Amino acid sequence: MSAATATPDLATPTGILSPTSIFYFLLVPALVLWYAYWKISRKHMLELAEKIPGPPTVPILGNALEFLGTSPDIFKRVYEKSLVYGSTVKMWVGPKLMIFLTDPRDVEIILSSHVHIDKASEYRFFKPWLGDGLLISTGQKWRAHRKLIAPTFHLNVLKSFIDLFNANSRDVVNKLKKEVGKEFDCHDYMSEATVEILLETAMGVSKKTQDQSGYDYAMAVMKMCDILHLRHTKFWLRPDLIFNMTSYAKAQDKLINTIHSLTRKVIKRKREDFDKGIRGSTAEVPEELKTKNYENKVSSKTVVEGLSYGQSAGLKDDLDVDDDIGEKKRMAFLDLMIEASQNGVVINDEEIKEQVDTIMFEGHDTTAAGSSFFLSMMGIHQDIQDKVIQELDEIFGDSDRPATFADTLEMKYLERCLMETLRMYPPVPIIARQLRQDVKLVSGDYTLPAGATIIIGTVKIHRLPEIYPNPDKFDPDNFLPERTANRHYYAFIPFSAGPRSCVGRKYAMLKLKILLSTILRNYRAQSDLLEKDFKLQADIILKRAEGFKIRLEPRKRLVKA
Ligand code: HEM
């Protein structure tokens, strides 16, 4: 019996099925089969998920309603929920299984692995902006590019940036003069400064040759993060089909245009320099800020101890190799990218742009947040700021000389304050991975199923009372050597850890030490708001929703403009 006789209504007058009829005729069984396959393929995941604790769900939506409201509300609600259910918590957003991990032993299993390196599907929202750059890519492409890029943030390269870190920090001090005595948002200044520092160091182009200000770029990035955050939390904005019909999509296109126009110009400028045989940064440093005039020799064999540039044994990564090979010539990031692209085999032009976009974003917004939280902490904890200032006075007296690398090694208390800031307010509050294989946890009798999205809650791990007694108190002594010695390595992971750790970790620490010490050599920070007034907002990067309001008072004579 033919299909046409069985269902005469589907047949044309000639008795032959029309293409539309065949489509609908096949669609229903295809959907039924797909649904059956989907159910069976998820059976294993559902069984394993069933055993993991989590808040009650509603049909179809799961826990999606928890993600309604403003960003600070969502942050507070999800954070509080996570306190109720222990160190392994599951949540369903529709059919999507998310598992939050906060036991450092479990976190180690995921982050130290060379297998679980795939980023969660949410990172795809970054694609129109960052393409397949280091933050998002995976597999062979990520491995090859990581191998290429990691050495460009080697300590020997970073030491060559010190004069530029100093010159740019001096510029910030001068710009801040107009804010003295007033309450203002220091994040604006930190964003602009961190963009300009990146341009002049890793990218090697003078900020003066850019017709677009670092501030415009930073503001575009901030608004872009707002849109990405909306897509993460508002589940109806996730499908491209729906998102593209909203006004957010148009706003996103405009912002990406602003962002990409800066990165395109930077690459063009660098290529022109490269063709002229110019290597290294073209940014200029005033003679009085050149550290060669002051450097109290730190030999290339000096053991770089402390938390800034080294890592505790259990966290060693590809950034920790060969730090003692002072003679080996290494190139800065964009110089190396351009050179490596000459034959187009290792990296092509489009890939360079993706990596430049990635480094520009990861390298500025994180440190802008970190430095703004640090200044807020100094403003609130005057007694702690006194100790930082005392240390700086012991190192520099009342000289205006630039900070040398050796000086940064002496800034031990400032370093502890910085670490404590990154503990309480980690700029990257969560890390998300997509599991391809089941993973057995050590903290309890749970197995994470393949296909689940794993969320590592740095912001919560850093406040576990069993690891940090009195976790909500800003206490730089948490980073005294005797306290860190017995702590699980994965209990402090502001820069993530393992093979996908932050490639700019040492860059960030060196830059922050020079930037923040220069500011505190000139100003004292004050804050009328206390930590209990902070409205934390985790839109990709952790921020204060109300802005980073502080006041500055001159400490001593200001440096000459
Ligand atoms: C305080 C400052 C910083 C913090 C707290 C921070 C934190 C992090 C974290 C947590 C990750 C892992 C993200 C994830 O897996 O989703 C990461 C990755 C990354 N960071 Fe940073 N970062 C900082 C500064 C920088 C700087 C200055 C640069 C570059 C100049 C940079 C470049 C990168 C890159 C390229 C990745 C991706 C690495 C990979 O997947 O192989 N970061 N960062």
UniProtKB/TrEMBL annotation:
<dbReference type="InterPro" id="IPR017972">
    <property type="entry name" value="Cyt_P450_CS"/>
</dbReference>
<keyword id="KW-0503">Monooxygenase</keyword>
<keyword id="KW-0472">Membrane</keyword>
<feature type="binding site" description="axial binding residue">
    <location>
        <position position="502"/>
    </location>
    <ligand>
        <name>heme</name>
    </ligand>
</feature>
<dbReference type="InterPro" id="IPR002401">
    <property type="entry name" value="Cyt_P450_E_grp-I"/>
</dbReference>
<keyword id="KW-0349">Heme</keyword>
<dbReference type="GO" id="GO:0016705">
    <property type="term" value="F:oxidoreductase activity, acting on paired donors, with incorporation or reduction of molecular oxygen"/>
</dbReference>
<dbReference type="GO" id="GO:0004497">
    <property type="term" value="F:monooxygenase activity"/>
</dbReference>
<keyword id="KW-0812">Transmembrane</keyword>
<dbReference type="InterPro" id="IPR036396">
    <property type="entry name" value="Cyt_P450_sf"/>
</dbReference>
<dbReference type="InterPro" id="IPR001128">
    <property type="entry name" value="Cyt_P450"/>
</dbReference>
<keyword id="KW-0560">Oxidoreductase</keyword>
<keyword id="KW-1133">Transmembrane helix</keyword>
<keyword id="KW-0479">Metal-binding</keyword>
<comment type="similarity">
    <text>Belongs to the cytochrome P450 family.</text>
</comment>
<feature type="transmembrane region" description="Helical">
    <location>
        <begin position="16"/>
        <end position="38"/>
    </location>
</feature>
<dbReference type="InterPro" id="IPR050196">
    <property type="entry name" value="Cytochrome_P450_Monoox"/>
</dbReference>
<dbReference type="GO" id="GO:0020037">
    <property type="term" value="F:heme binding"/>
</dbReference>
<keyword id="KW-0408">Iron</keyword>
<dbReference type="GO" id="GO:0005506">
    <property type="term" value="F:iron ion binding"/>
</dbReference>
<protein>
    <recommendedName>
        <fullName>Cytochrome P450</fullName>
    </recommendedName>
</protein>
<dbReference type="Pfam" id="PF00067">
    <property type="entry name" value="p450"/>
</dbReference>
